[in-house]
Predict the 3D structure of the following.
Amino acid sequence: MPSFEERAACRAPAEEVWKLLYDPARFPEWWAGMERVESGNGEDVTRYMEAWPDFPYPTRISRREDGRIVVSCLLSDIVHEWVLEPATGGCSVRVRVEIPEDEAERLEAQEAEIRASLARLVSRAEECAR
């Protein structure tokens, strides 16, 4: 299964990043290419991307006891696992993405989307912390 990991240092406290990760309605503030998120039942939401604004992406958002946020696309089975770790002067944000073999051609696009999203997440958290 193709996968990759990205990491970024953030000058904001982990709590500020957590607020953005924990609330799917705030994903469009930082997730590159995301237009909107509609609430669903429990952990399930529907995401809409700017490139396909009328195409629903059913998604499960799991909040793990160890603090991880796992965003799983129920259509493509692409999984994003977000982890916050303590760091001097803020926190470290890490994301691991797993892509099923039948979606492997999307690896490069996913890497670009996640790099941009991670940078935007860090920037937005730092703005909120001011």
About this structure: The two ends are 40 Å apart (CA to CA). Strands lie at 3-10, 34-39, 44-49, 52-63, 69-73, 79-87, 90-98. The chain is about 30% helix and 40% strand.
